[in-house]
Amino acid sequence: MTVFARREAQRWESNWGSNLGRFITVPRSKPPRIHSAYLGVIRVLLQMPQLFFIGGTGHVGGAVLDRLVELHPNVLVKVLVRTQGKASRLMSKYPKVQTVIGALDSFDEIESSCRAADIVVNTAPDVTHEASYQVILRGMKSRETKGYYIHTSGASLIWDEPKGSKDARVWDDIGDIGDLTSMDVTCTHSATDKIVREAAQEINIAIISPGGVGGLSPSIEHPTPITTPGILLTARAFNSGFQIDEGQNRHSWIHVLDIAEIYLKLIGHALDGNATVEGLQLWGPEAYYFATSEEISFADFITGLVPVLHKHGVIQSTEIKPVSVIDAARASIWGKDYKPDAAPPPEDSWAMHISILYGINMRIRGSRMFKLGWMAERGSVVDTFEDVIAAHLALEQNRGKE
C-alpha cells in the first residue's frame, strides 16, 4: 500500500471502523495490484456520506434503520449499541452497518462519532439525558462543515391532566409553533428540545415529535411498542380491561413503519442538501414535526385490545374497569402481584408516566409532514394488536427460558 493510501485508510479507520472487507474483496493472489485496489476503494469510501445513528436498535430506530439501509446503500452507517452481543446481532442482519459499543453516557465515543458524521439521527430517549445531547451537539459543532441532526422528542410535551375526558386542544406544528417552542422547561421534552433548538445556527436541526407509536417494527431488539409491557402488566393486575374514568380522552397515534418514512424524507433532503420544500424551511429552530396518522379514544383503544388479551390468556375477564391513575401505576409495577394498598410509584417514574398516558389527551396535527409529501400507508394501530401481542408474548416466553 502506498503512503497516501495507508494514511487515508488510517483516517477512515479511526472514524468509521477498520473492516474494509465488508465493502470490498481484494484478490490475495496478486499482491502488486492490492495497492491500487485499496486506494480506489478508500477514495470512494471517503466520498460517501456518513451517518451516525443513536437508538438504532429501538422500536422506532430499528424501523428507520431498516429503511435507511434499503433506500440508501451508498451511505456509511454507524450505530451506537450497548453491548457486543447487540452489535453482533445487528451486523448479522445488516453486514455493512458498523457499530460503536457504548451507552448515552459514553461521551467520548458519541462526540467523536458525531464529529465524523454528516448526519446524526437520534431516536433514543431524551428525557433525563440532557448531558448526552450537549455532547452530541458539541461534536457536530466541531465539524468543518455544517451537519444535520434529526432529533426525536414526543407529544407528551402537550399532555393535559389525566381525567379521562375528551375536551382538549388540538396542537398544530405550524399554527402553534410559537407556543410549542416556548413551553415551560418543566414540560416533558421541553428542556431537551430547547437545547437542540439553540444549536440551530451551527447545525441543521429538525425535531420529530410522535404521539403514540404502534405496530410491529423490524428492530432486532424491540419489535413491539415500548408501551406494551406496561399495558400488559396493568391488564394482568386487574385481570381485565381498564380505563381512567370514562376513557374518552383521545390520543394521536402512528404506525412505526409510517413514522420511519418521515425520518427517511428528512434524511433524503439532508443527503441532497435541500433547505426548503414548497416554501417550508426543513431545518432550524421551528423545524418541529408532529408525527401522527389517526386519533383514538382510550376507550376505543382498550375495546380493541381486550379481546386480543383475552384470546391469548393474558386476562380472564373482558370487562373494562374504570380505575384511577394511581391504581394503574401500582398495577403497572406489580402485574399479577398487584397490591392495592402499596405505595404509589414516584411521580417521575416510568410506571407513573405510562399510567398518566391512559388518562390524558394527546391531540396533535402534523401539518409539516404533509408538506414533506408524506402520507400514512398503514392502517390503524388497533388492527396491529393481534400481531403485536402475539410477538410480545413470544418474547416474554423466550426470555423466561434464558
Automatic annotation (TrEMBL):
PANTHER family: NAD(P)-BINDING DOMAIN-CONTAINING PROTEIN-RELATED, PROTEIN YEEZ
An annotated GO cellular component: cytoplasm
Domain NAD(P)-binding: 55-153
Identification of the protein by name: NAD(P)-binding domain-containing protein
GO molecular function: aldehyde dehydrogenase (NAD+) activity
Coiled-coil residues: none
